[in-house]
Design a protein that fits this description.
alpha/beta
């Protein structure tokens, strides 16, 4: 019998001073049986970094043709495609053709660095693509914050991120390996 997803209830308060976005999102997040706490928390962090009233978690690992997070316009146009991990060149190419903007949040330390060395030259033609690396130490610290019912506060200022749950704080500094238009 197939394992079922584990449901996480997340109250996510975002204070993004860089974008002047201040909202609280109540999220119900399904954690796929093969998903780690680290990946789950990276997904929530990516949501916070791009928080918007129309941003949505998708089926993620359960659907091959969907990103982890997306934002669609009211007319159904795919405005933002957010992928996590180390997608193949084909996925990057297809998503860049489907959405106005694409962001890949990669993590995994040396593995992510090797992935980027392999794929970066083929990404130069995608002006709508951003690639952001999250340090292995920071994402493993984020994983320790995971619980089935979370109240997360995420504060973003000058590109730096502070994630707090109760008395625990994790600082994350996303590093842009590729910015849109370059």
């Amino acid at each position: 019998m197939a394992q079922k997803a584990t449901i996480y209830k997340v109250e996510l308060s975002v204070t993004d001073m860089d974008r002047h976005y201040y909202e609280t999102h109540k999220l119900t997040v399904a954690k796929h049986p093969s998903e780690t706490d680290e990946r789950l928390m990276v997904r929530i962090l990516a949501f916070a970094l791009n928080a918007h009233e129309h941003l949505e978690m998708t089926k993620g690992l359960s659907a091959d043709d969907e990103p982890d997070i997306w934002r669609k316009s009211l007319s159904g146009e795919l405005e933002l495609w957010i992928a996590l991990g180390l997608p193949g060149e084909k996925v990057v190419r297809q998503s860049s053709g489907k959405a106005n903007d694409v962001i890949v949040y990669c993590y995994g330390g040396r593995t992510a660095e090797m992935w980027w060395e392999k794929i970066k030259n083929s990404t130069t033609r995608f002006d709508n693509l951003q690639v952001v690396n999250l340090s292995e130490n920071e994402t493993s610290e984020l994983a320790k914050l995971a619980s089935r019912s979370m109240k997360l506060q995420v504060t973003i200022q000058d590109g730096d991120v502070m994630v707090s749950v109760d008395d625990s704080i994790v600082y994350v500094t996303p590093v842009k390996w590729k910015t849109a238009g370059h």
